[in-house]
Structure formats: C-alpha cells, structure tokens
Amino acid sequence: MLISIIISFYAATISCAATNTLTHSIVRVHSYANQGHLLRYRVEATVYNFGNESIQTYDWVLPIQNYTRLTSVGITIDDDTLVPWQVNIDEERLLAVYTIELKTPLFNKEAIKVVLKYSLCDMMTPLPATITLSQDQPVTLYSSSTFLSPYTSELQEIFFHLPTRSREGTLISYDPKDDAEVDRNAGTIRYDTFKVGPYTWKAVRLYFVNNAPFATVMQAIRVIHIQPFWDVVSFEDSFHLRHDGATFTGPYSRVTGKEVPTEFQTLLTTVPQNAKEFFFRDESGNISTAVMSNRGKSTMELQMRFPLLGGWQTRFQTGYSLSLSEVLTPLTNTLFTSKKRISIALCTPLQNVLVRNLTVRVILPESSSSVKLFLAGQERNPKLLTRRPRYSLFGDIFPSLTQNVVEIQDMMLACPDRDDVVDIQFDNTMTFPQWAPVINIGGILMVGMLFLRSLLKVIG
Predict the structure, then answer these.
(1) Under 8 Å between Cβ of 365 and 226
(2) 83 lies in a domain?
(3) CA-angle at 60, arms to 59 and 63, nearest 5°
(4) How far apart are CA 136 and CA 171, in angstroms?
(5) Which of 209, 244, 278 is a domain's end point?
(6) What percent of the chain clears pLDDT 70, i.e. is strictly above it?
(7) How far apart are alpha carbons 344 and 375 in whole angstroms?
(8) What mean pLDDT is predicted for residues 398-402?
(9) Is 268 exposed, middle or buried (0-12, 13-18, 19+ CB in 10 A)?
(10) 344 and 308, same structural domain?
(11) Is 310 helix (H, G, I), strand (E, B) or coil?
(12) Shared domain check, 232 and 177
C-alpha cells in the first residue's frame, strides 16, 4: 500500500511535465509464483518512438522495496544478447532506475522489442506463519496489476501463474476482482488495462496455497583450489540449508508414512560431465544413502538424510575435481612464466534455491602474482588473502611460502537464474614452492633408502 501511495503521488506530479516520446504499444508481463518461493518475471514490451528526435536510452524502474529483493536480472533488445545497463537510485522518489544504452538510436516511428527477465525473493509470505503436519501452506502475494514504467502504454496484459497441482496450489482469494480473468484449471489470473499512464501502480493481493519447497541457502562457501603440480582443480561447496516456509509445529514421525505437503528431501545439483571424485557428506560423514542419479548430462540428484519442514535446517558439503586444462585458459606462455585465466560463475551448483550469502575463495598456485579480477568485462580490485600451503614437509623451515587467495562475496542470488561470470587472471612463475612436493617426496624416498640400507647391514 505504501508503494502505491508514493508512486501515485509521483505520477501526479510529473504527468503534466512528461515530455518523453517513447510509448509502449503492448506490454505483456508473466509472473511465475509456481516455482518455489522465488517470484520470476518475464516482461515483453514493444516500444515505439513517436517523437521527432532520436532516442538512445530506455529506462526501466523498480520500487526501492523490490530492488532490495532483486536476485537476478537480464535484459535483451530485439532478441539480441544481454545488454548492459546502469542503475541509479532515486532516494527522493524511492525508485531504482535501470538505464539501458541502445546499440543504435531509435528514430521516429521505429520500434524495438524489450525483454526483461528478473526474479524477486521474499514476495510470498506464509499465512499463517505456523502449520501442523498435515496442513497446506497458504501464502500472501502483494504485487501490481500494471507494469510500472516511465512511459505510457496502449495495452498491458498482466498474468499471474500459480501452482496448478492439487498438492501444491489452490487459489483462495484475490483482490481486486474487477477486470480479472481467472482460469483455475490453468492456475492463471489475468488483468488487462488500456491506456496506462506513466508510473501507474495498482495494488493486487493474492492468497493461495503454495506447498513448493522454500529452499534457502543461508550461507554458501565455495573453495576452488588450483594445484598445478597434481594437474587438478578441486571444487568444494559448503551449504547451510534451511526451509524458509511456514514454521512446522507439533509432533513428527517418519514411521507413520503420512505425506507431508511442505517437506522436501531431494535437491538437484549441476556437475560438469568430466567431474571426478564426487562426494556428498554432512556433519556425520559421507551420505551413502543418497540417491545420485544422472538426470541429463550434468545434473545429479542428492537425497539428504532426513526431510526438511518449515524452520528445519541442515549443513552439508559437496565437491569434485577437474583436470587443469578444463578450468584454466592459457593466455601467454614464456619459458618460465605463463599468464592464465579462470572463469567462475557467481552462483552455487544447487538448482531452484535462494542463496542469501555466497563466498567464493579461489586458492591460486604458490608462484602466482599480478592477480587481476574482471566482472562484466571491467577490471575490479580483488580482495587478496594469503595462507600457508598445507602440504609442505619443510613448512616450518620456509615460513615465507604462501598462497594468494582471491575472495569474492555476493548476496541474494537466485540459482541458476544468475549468470554473472568473474574472470581471474594471474601470472604463474616456475619457482621453488611449485617444486616443493617433489622435494618432499624425494626426501621421503632418501630417508627410506637410508633406513633400508641400515637394515640390510644389520641383517648381513
């Protein structure tokens, strides 16, 4: 309600002064509330320029409350690749303004097609907040029956897609009911609005059953260890997983065999096809009862020790290893120095989960230097840490042996919706630390040979 009041006041103050010549002929918005506790949007808009001057930018706005809940966003123009944008926060009007630079100017009577894909979290609130074993999970969703835009629209079609299976969803109530077309079999609610002015917001309240898992990763830590000597790059992920749905109260028993509508025990994770030494364990050790079956070429199914109900949580780790050539890309090579690059996706391998905090640590080789970090093609200052190598037999003798660790932190991610990629470049020089394992192994063999020689003298 606060959003509608603020935006209505803003629209009233600028409607007479608006001079923008861009107009939406039709805007079609699909809101998918049937995929867990993430609300996914797909917006298709046809934009015309009816002015005499060419237009170089296109603006998309979000209420500041929704901007803080944004977990992923992707924008395409005329079905082309994803285009870059800039975000400016209008604190006075409580709006986040996304400014998209068009590749070519939009001249008079020309049109473009804009497609927005984004996800919001914490939009569906369980009501009641606590449920018992056999109860369904009703949720409340507040949204708008119009698409918030700084431009006028000839027609806006807004679709809300709700869960359709009887176990997962039933529409209980919706408001307003005027101009709403409801198809309960398809689980959709549609609002059509003609002649929509700039910055128009019409509040909508939906109340429906949503038993889909509210799987939330409270903390995810991914450690990537580059080990040139062993020709291996190891990946280890640690998760703190919680069911963020309505809190479960009352007794629970797995012996009764009753179906619990809101529980979940299975997760999907993405694994490279050439992954080796895959493991799945929790605080009690390896989970040998897990079902790890191939679903496609690179997706595996993980079954936890026990199901999760609302408010329950667990911690577990997964990991695997890849060969060096599958992860590192050589850029330049000389006799003793080589420049390499590793590309990392800012997301976890788990599918259909919300990640509230993500930390990625990349452990570089001991001889690495000149570390650079690139995000979206722009160089950023990397957060560099140092640590002692874990293997060296002569670690106490050579305290200067250290490894560079690049740490990246992010929050509020919808996986696998996010496709941000970070590139890390570094120089790798052939120095003593890289040969330390050889010296260690050689020392052990030498001690073994001396011991064997002494033993033979005693026997002889």
Answers:
(1) yes
(2) yes
(3) 135
(4) 12
(5) 209
(6) 82
(7) 10
(8) 57
(9) middle
(10) yes
(11) coil
(12) no
One domain, residues 138 and 105: yes
Establish if 440 belongs to a structural domain. Answer: no
Phi and psi at residue 448, to the nearest 5°: -65, -40
Model confidence, pTM: 0.79
Task: CATH number of the domain at 165, please.
Answer: 2.60.40.1730
Residue 155 has which token pair?
A: 């027609």
Closest CA to 267 of 208, 353, 340: 353
Sign of CA dihedral 10, 11, 16, 19: positive
Confidence of residue 436 (pLDDT cuts 50, 70, 90): low
Lowest mean pLDDT among 62-66, 253-257, 298-302: 253-257
Judged against a pLDDT cut of 80, whether residue 386 lies above it is answered with no
262 and 172 assigned to the same domain: no
56 closest CA partner among 88, 18, 110, 103: 103
Q: Of 313, 356, 377, whose CA–CA distance to 37 is shortest?
A: 356
Say if residues 111 and 47 touch (Cβ distance below 8 Å): yes
Rounded to 5 degrees, what angle do the CA atoms 76, 348, 306 make? 130
- CA neighbor of 364 nearest in space, from 336, 396, 342: 342
> Domains in the chain: how many in total?
2
Rounded average pLDDT over 406-423: 76
For 443, phi then psi, to 5°, come to -65, -40
Both 197 and 246 in a single domain? no
| Calpha distance 84→289 (Å, rounded) | 45
Rounded CA separation 40/37 (Å): 9
β-strand pairing of 232-243 with 313-323: antiparallel
CA neighbours closer than 13 Å in the CB half-sphere of residue 208: 31
Cα 414 to Cα 81, 118, 215, 217, 419, distances in angstroms = 20, 10, 11, 10, 10
Q: Are residues 238 and 365 in the same domain?
A: yes
Residues of the domain holding 142: 2-209
- 439's enclosing H/E stretch is helix 432-459
Q: Are residues 142 and 123 in contact, defined by beta-carbon separation less than 8 angstroms? A: yes
* 128 and 24 inside one domain: yes
448, part of any domain: no
Same domain? For 351 and 232 the reply is yes
**Does a structural domain hold residue 456?**
no
